[in-house]
Amino acid sequence: MNYMPGTASLIQDIDKKHLVLLRDGRTLIGYLRSIDQFANLVLHQTVERIHVGKKYGDIPRGIFVVRGENVVLLGEIDLEKESDMPLQQVSIEEILEEQRVEQQAKQESEKLKVQALKERGLSVPRADTLDEY
Amino acid sequence: QSLEDCPLDEDEDAFQALGEEDEDIDQFNDDTFGAGAVVAELEDKAGSSREPDGPVGNDGDVLGDPEDALAERLTRLVIDSELEDPAIMQAVHTRDPPQPGGLNSSIWDSSAVLRRIRGPLLAQEMPSVSVLDYALPQRPPQARDEERDPSERALPRRSSSPIIGSPPVRAIPIGTPPKQAAIPNFNQQILCPKPVHIRATMQQRYPAPYGERMSPNQLCNVPNSSLLGHPFPHSVSPVLTHLQRAQLLGGAQVKLLPAGRMSPSQFARVSGLVGSPLPSVNPKLLQGRVGQMMSPAGGFRAFFGAPPAPPPSQLPHPPGPGSHLQNLRPQPQMFRPDTTHLHPQHRRLLHQRQQQNRNQHRSLNGSGGDRGGHRSSHQEQIRKDPYANLMLQREKDWVSKIQMMQLQSTDPYLDDYYYQNYFQKLEKLAAAEEVHGDGPKKERTKLITPQVAKLEHTYKPVQFEGSLGKLTVSSVNNPRKMIDAVVTSRSEDDETKEKQVRDKRRQTLVTIEKTYSLLLDVEDYERRYLLSLEGERPALMGERKQKICDMYDNLRGKAPGQDRPSDDHFMQIMCIRKGKRLVARILPFLAPEQAADVLMATARNLPFLIKKDAQDEVLPCLLRPFSHVLYHLPLGTVTSLVQQLTNLPQSAAAPTNLHLTAVLQNKFGLSLLYLVLSRGEELQSSDTNTELMQDNQWTELMLMATRELLRIPQGALAKPVSIPSNLISLFSRYVDQQKLNLLETKLHLVQGIR
């Protein structure tokens, strides 16, 4: 049965493996088991995948119930294409370590940037204080 | 409660009826959260109180009476029971008040408080088990009536939703090891209580075919299923001692003589949390006993990264279950949780072995094999994904019904403009294709959105007899003002200059937005005109005209009786990117004089505009509408236009013509100039009896203009959007051949020289 042609309905996606990107930046991969009208998702055999550079690590999470408003996007995973990925899988500890290192590096560079701007008398406006007009 | 109470057909009809009822727009909302859910609760209590448990029912009766009396009193009080607002609960005496059950019935029980639900769906709704009942295993359904407390009813139940199909919560202790080596006591009360609410499919399920295999959601719904007091071994320590295994097997034999039942040990494999293999249970043994096999434990592994399942030899694959149970959609991708991380070689081997086993198995179960033969694809799918179809067809329909309801609209062009346009475009393409190509007509499914007539709901407040005033109940359709927000307007004095500027800009923005709304309406009139009746059309035209006037007024600023004093207002709008686009879109609708006015104003202030547009570069969007306007202008206007544009004649004192320079250096300016010149030339050449005055003016102007053009260095010239072809003939009138050649090269007037 072709549910709602021409629309973005998740019904056809049920029981398929999906990648879900959440608003807090997490990436979940799991089998989409159930949905509702708010696009709340029930993910089965979910794995949280952390990417750092060319490496990634999977943290098994079990069953996830995601509130619809927190989903940025989701897409079906092609199981065949999944097997040949250019990325390298590493262990959880390793990827968490890599992530930490990456965060640190980012913070450092951010700090330097702010410092440099301050020296020049400029200030980076924070997003909440921006007044367009 | 029984399977037989499940009317499959009724449900479907009910759903359809639901879709057709347009007065209960909030029906689903009600069902989920409001009165509908509560009534469903009542119905199920009514159902359960029909049970032979006598004393409980009687108690209910006693309590029922005073509540009925209250209901009657309330009905008498309420004059206007015809509330338009479906979101407000009415006090209506229902004819057949369902028996409130138990001593501790809450206020929700009272029929007097509930509106009679008109939907057929709910009237025939199956008594459903509350979530909490389901989750607490020790309480059998019969005992439910006894200890009711309101807190249990805190969750409004969805009357139209089936029970969650996953195995009972208690039975899967996720992440915690079993406290003791749990020996299943098969005689004890079922872990998963017999679900009272049986899904439609279960009816067919009952004559369980031999050799059938079940997925977890099926297991829950089979009476006397093997979810009986079985402690789920989970991922951490699934190891059972010999004794346990023996008992499991023994239990299996005892319990599962009737064909088509699951053995607990098999069920152990069903659990998705079996991390490592259960090597103990000999598949062959079970096979002989029950003739029913589960898919490999590996297939149920919870997480992708877990080690692969027990060696393939241990994992026989059964012929699939009757697929009539499940609405299987053709699944292009196979669920392969256990093989995602296997090396391709390994995967192939595994697959081969699986095939072998499947063939082996087929030979053992003759009848199973027959059935399995022509349903192999389904079997494979189910074999590989035992958790498939947790979401039933009915639930999917429910969700898609809600989605369809959301698409209902009284004015689709208003609510969903982009989709409508997109769809039209697609259809045009398809039609065009069909015309050109003689290929077979492709069957394309179209989504038909239901058109709902606009209903005017006026809220009439409820009135009690003998009282003064009206009782106002605030609801979704009649919201009450909760906050008294007072708008304080500032006085002019204490504003700083910056604030004034900012406010002025904001006012301009508001004007732009208002004018845009008018513009969208005006643009829409054509469509409305086509859709409307004959009688309405003059009114429509009048409206349209009025709106156009309003737009123009907005653009130029309301003239207080006198002629346009300043271009200030217009300039403000033109400084903003959106304003320029707005003007471009409005121009086609304006009368010629009004349009000319706009053009004039633009030309007059062009250098200023150019400066302001430096970042946006949106001015060229005005070229096309301007050219259309030019087409209708007489020579006199054109002349003055050129005057404005070029700022000629200049006073002798002015050394340089900055105005003209700015114009020429800007893409838009130069293009506009060319357009105007071209138009002038057209008029000149075509119109034989033009006024002499005008002619002279034009000629003088042209002479001056050409002189300026000759003077200006080539590098300073901008690149125009387009060069009209008649410029050469224009210039040829006013300059000699040598200068003409110069002009030609400078302005790239000759075709081929670019």
Automatic annotation (TrEMBL), chain A:
CDD domains the UniProt entry points to? LSm1 (cd01728)
Domain Sm: start-end pairs: 5-80
Q: Does the keyword Cytoplasm apply?
A: yes
User: GO CC annotations?
Assistant: Lsm1-7-Pat1 complex; P-body; ribonucleoprotein complex
Keywords on this record? Answer: Cytoplasm, mRNA processing, mRNA splicing, Phosphoprotein, Ribonucleoprotein, RNA-binding
Q: What Gene Ontology terms for biological process does this UniProt record contain?
A: deadenylation-dependent decapping of nuclear-transcribed mRNA; mRNA processing; RNA splicing
What is this protein's function per UniProt? Answer: Plays a role in the degradation of histone mRNAs, the only eukaryotic mRNAs that are not polyadenylated. Probably also part of an LSm subunits-containing complex involved in the general process of mRNA degradation. Probably involved with other LSm subunits in the general process of degradation of mRNAs.
Q: How does it assemble?
A: Interacts with SLBP; interaction with SLBP occurs when histone mRNA is being rapidly degraded during the S phase. LSm subunits form a heteromer with a donut shape.
Q: Which family does it belong to?
A: Belongs to the snRNP Sm proteins family.
Quote the protein name from its UniProt record: U6 snRNA-associated Sm-like protein LSm1
- Give the species this sequence originates from: Cardinalis cardinalis
Organismal lineage: Eukaryota, Metazoa, Chordata, Craniata, Vertebrata
TrEMBL record, chain B:
Q: Which InterPro entries match?
A: Pat1-like, PAT1_dom
Record's Gene Ontology CC terms? Answer: nuclear speck; P-body; PML body
Pro residues: which segments have biased composition?
307-321
Q: Name one GO biological process term.
A: deadenylation-dependent decapping of nuclear-transcribed mRNA
Q: Where in the cell is it found?
A: Cytoplasm, P-body; Nucleus speckle; Nucleus, PML body
Q: Which UniProt keywords apply?
A: Cytoplasm, Nucleus, Phosphoprotein, RNA-binding
What is the official name of this protein in its record?
Protein PAT1 homolog 1
Organism name = Cardinalis cardinalis
Starting at the broadest rank, the lineage of the source organism is: Eukaryota, Metazoa, Chordata, Craniata, Vertebrata
